[in-house]
């Protein structure tokens, strides 16, 4: 009842609301890359694997764009393997096809494990995760052998295999990936995750990795916002690990409202916003900013971030970490940012 009262007041005083965000919308609606959008539509319509190949190769040596397009087609290969099988039969040694297969196996491994904490994951889930992860690592090694020696994507895929295999080779692989593409966001994000306390590192190492990468990245680059992600990982591990209660949520909010935490995060956001973004794929980092502003109660800044995200929304874990459910956290905060209810 109270929500509806706030809604009516907002409509009367604040005017019309933006379009209400939609989850599970057609992927085509969320793709801003015209080449990818057209190639994906052609692939779904005709089942012609050449559409995927041509779109990936058209990215040239823009490794971030190439990796993004390849990831979208890997998702399609998971849903419908016929077109991908046709490609592998026609070109069994094509590097993009080899990397798509590695990504498909990694996706299967992730789903086999699930997203629960280790204490709530069964032995059978762990076994399936490790078996499929080993196969993904082998496929990544083959992709590396076939790939352009400048392409970091197979190395990023090998870094991801460390979640199952341990981080013994992380430094070597990460170093080579950085040599190939110094500011690659996906590469640094995996490194931050692997070096966090819940995996193979510590809070100190995780923040060092994130801040070093962000400091080196140019303004407008997504990598500049990785320290914000590190703060989320820290808060989740310290205050919300196996506990999504109101008490833990209050502890998270107190952490992000510390002056020193806000100075750090605000500085990185200012650097990111000081130049035109270098990528079209910004939903993730825009949601990071929306999470942060919602946690600290900056309504105007949160609304700007939500407006930038737009109507079609992908779920990200941070909403679930701090609100108990990804979709609920996003929508509750979206309504608040638009003047309805509390964050």
From TrEMBL:
It comes from Actinoplanes campanulatus. This is DUF4034 domain-containing protein. It comes from the Bacteria.
């Amino acid at each position: 009842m109270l929500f509806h009262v706030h809604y009516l007041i907002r409509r009367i005083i604040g005017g019309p609301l933006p379009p209400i965000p939609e989850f599970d919308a057609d992927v085509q609606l969320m793709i801003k890359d015209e080449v990818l959008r057209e190639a994906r539509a052609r692939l779904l319509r005709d089942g012609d694997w050449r559409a995927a190949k041509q779109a990936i190769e058209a990215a040239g040596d823009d490794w971030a764009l190439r990796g993004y397009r390849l990831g979208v087609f890997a998702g399609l290969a998971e849903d419908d393997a016929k077109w991908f099988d046709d490609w592998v039969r026609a070109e069994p040694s094509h590097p993009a096809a080899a990397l798509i297969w590695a990504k498909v196996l990694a996706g299967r491994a992730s789903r086999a494990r699930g997203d629960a904490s280790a204490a709530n994951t069964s032995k059978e889930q762990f076994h399936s995760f490790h078996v499929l992860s080993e196969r993904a690592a082998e496929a990544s090694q083959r992709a590396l052998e076939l790939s352009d020696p400048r392409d970091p994507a197979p190395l990023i895929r090998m870094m991801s295999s460390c979640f199952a295999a341990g981080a013994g080779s992380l430094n070597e692989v990460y170093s080579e990936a950085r040599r190939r593409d110094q500011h690659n966001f996906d590469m640094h994000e995996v490194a931050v995750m692997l070096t966090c306390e819940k995996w193979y590192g510590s809070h100190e190492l995780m923040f060092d990795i994130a801040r070093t990468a962000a400091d080196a990245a140019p303004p407008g680059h997504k990598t500049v916002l990785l320290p914000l992600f590190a703060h989320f990982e820290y808060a989740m591990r310290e205050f919300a690990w196996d506990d999504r209660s109101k008490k833990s949520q209050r502890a998270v909010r107190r952490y992000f409202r510390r002056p020193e935490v806000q100075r750090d995060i605000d500085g990185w956001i200012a650097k990111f916003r000081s130049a035109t973004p270098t990528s079209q794929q910004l939903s993730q980092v825009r949601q990071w900013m929306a999470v942060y502003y919602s946690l600290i109660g900056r309504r105007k800044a949160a609304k700007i971030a939500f407006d930038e995200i737009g109507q079609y929304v992908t779920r990200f874990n941070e909403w679930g970490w701090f609100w108990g459910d990804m979709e609920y956290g996003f929508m509750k905060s979206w309504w608040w940012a638009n003047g309805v209810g509390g964050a």
